[in-house]
Design the sequence.
């Protein structure tokens, strides 16, 4: 039997259900792993060991008394440090919130607990989920950025310090670090998962993200968290299907729209060749590949995302900025200051253009199961002053369409590469099914050699 | 009056706002960021939905 820390969410929950593994053993294994690795990887900011072990013991008792509470019973989950946790610090990687302790749990946190999960701790985030790099270290190569803003969550999952962690995406903050760390990152449809109790960066863009090591785990975690929450006005009441069942419903290989326009132009030669080779493998396995074009409105997609995000960021942080401007990092400070300058009409124009863009992107995807692009323009950059480039993620965030990145291999330098898939709003079932099919066809599950 | 402001008009507008909020020196430091933001706002104006199409969004 492998060490418990190596289990995926599905494996750990299965072993616990069958009585082969106790939640306490699993928690101890992960805490020991964190003790051994975190001094060098710096993925965690707060871990309450006693609370984790006491919760694990409680889960053990529940199993003995009446069986599992839900699909992740006894499985510890990491949280980006912008998710409210009652009684546990939520510092948002900032000096401003350094000592802030919320008195309630985010809805996502409550749902994880209701499903039997255990909150393992708070993972390092860039400051307020913005662009100033965090101290987290890429387990594939410490000289390269782990990405951001969900950097600690991604590093923790990649280095087997937890099987699942939550992140968020306003530009590319879930899928890009997932790609850079060789794991799976899922950004659900905007509104699919409640943001109640998640510190905002930009209300009309922020989406809770899921970081795991395989597509099945993404489906399990989405199942746990998806669904209406009246406390988040942006959270939809669209019905939530059974995602694992949906994953089994793909009748044959998927129809995939390949988008070379823009995405290939912005990629390095290595990424272009790698994506071509991955697409060829998918075609050989039976996928129907069709090259498609982007809509005209794509031309302003990145600009809309930036204008909307910096104005909303300025709005949220205005009060703190006026009193404590010097305590913000340079990148978020610059975003706040620029956001304060944008006239209201220009902000609303960006929101209007997004409506058109969303409609156009949906029309582009219709008739296909998913669309495919390279995961990122290049592997994780060798530059610790940046979190990398979000340009391949932000169109999906801006349009609200669900997207996922899955590992597809390694670069010449030994860094992870990924493909990105996107689907229609509310159809995460089909997206996960296609992603699971591609994951099996590519067979490229990755593990950082020094942290396997 | 043109349908949308030009890049120069947008840049002038936000530069004036920057000067009035933070003074000439800081506005000068922000020049590159002001220019790229004006460019982005101009780009957005070029892809606005047509006014006769847009009411459909609310149906």
Sequence:
């Amino acid at each position: 039997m492998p060490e418990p820390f190596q289990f995926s969410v599905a494996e750990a929950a299965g072993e616990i259900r069958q009585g082969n593994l106790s939640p306490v053993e699993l928690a101890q294994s992960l805490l020991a792993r964190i003790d051994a690795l975190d001094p060098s990887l710096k993925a965690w900011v707060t871990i309450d060991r006693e609370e984790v072990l006491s919760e694990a013991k409680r889960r053990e008792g529940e199993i003995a008394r009446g069986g599992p509470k839900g699909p992740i019973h006894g499985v510890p989950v990491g949280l980006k440090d912008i998710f409210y946790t009652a009684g546990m610090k939520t510092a948002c990687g900032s000096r401003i919130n350094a000592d802030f302790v919320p008195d309630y749990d985010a809805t996502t946190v409550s749902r994880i607990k209701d499903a039997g999960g255990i909150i393992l701790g708070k993972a390092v985030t860039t400051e307020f989920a913005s662009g100033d790099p965090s101290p987290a270290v890429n387990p594939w190569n410490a000289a390269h950025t782990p990405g951001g803003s969900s950097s600690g969550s991604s590093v923790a999952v990649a280095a087997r310090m937890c099987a699942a962690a939550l992140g968020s995406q306003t530009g590319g903050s879930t899928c890009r670090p997932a790609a850079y760390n060789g794991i799976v990152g899922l950004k659900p449809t905007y509104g699919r998962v409640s943001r109640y109790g998640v510190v905002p960066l930009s209300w009309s863009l922020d989406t809770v993200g899921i970081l795991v090591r395989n597509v099945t785990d993404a489906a399990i975690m989405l199942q746990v968290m998806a669904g209406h929450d009246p406390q988040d006005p942006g959270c939809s009441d669209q019905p939530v299907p059974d995602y694992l069942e949906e994953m089994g419903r793909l009748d044959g290989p998927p129809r995939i729209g390949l988008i070379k326009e823009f995405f290939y132009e912005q990629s390095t030669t290595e990424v272009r060749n790698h994506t071509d080779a991955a697409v060829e493998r998918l075609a050989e396995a039976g996928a129907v590949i069709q090259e498609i074009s982007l809509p005209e409105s794509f031309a302003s997609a990145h600009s809309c995302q930036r204008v909307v995000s910096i104005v909303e960021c300025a709005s949220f942080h205005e009060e703190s900025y006026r009193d404590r401007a010097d305590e913000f990092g340079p990148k978020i400070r610059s975003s706040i200051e620029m956001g304060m300058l944008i006239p209201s009409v220009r902000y609303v124009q960006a929101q209007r253009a997004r409506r058109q863009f969303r409609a156009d992107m949906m029309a582009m995807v219709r008739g296909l199961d998913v669309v495919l692009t390279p995961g990122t323009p290049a592997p994780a950059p060798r530059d610790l002053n940046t979190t990398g480039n979000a340009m391949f993620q932000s169109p999906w965030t801006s349009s609200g369409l669900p997207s996922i990145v899955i590992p597809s291999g390694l670069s010449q330098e030994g860094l992870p590469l990924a493909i990105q898939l996107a689907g229609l709003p509310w159809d995460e079932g089909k997206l996960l099914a296609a992603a699971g099919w591609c994951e099996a066809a590519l067979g490229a599950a990755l593990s950082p050699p020094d942290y396997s | 009056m043109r349908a949308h402001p030009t890049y120069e008009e947008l840049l002038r507008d936000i530069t004036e706002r920057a000067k009035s909020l933070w003074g000439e020196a800081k506005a000068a430091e922000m020049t590159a960021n002001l220019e790229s933001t004006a460019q982005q706002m101009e780009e957005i104006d070029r892809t606005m939905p047509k006014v006769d199409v847009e009411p459909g969004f609310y149906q």
Remarks:
- Chain B has one domain: 7-58.
- Chain B is about 65% helix and 0% strand.
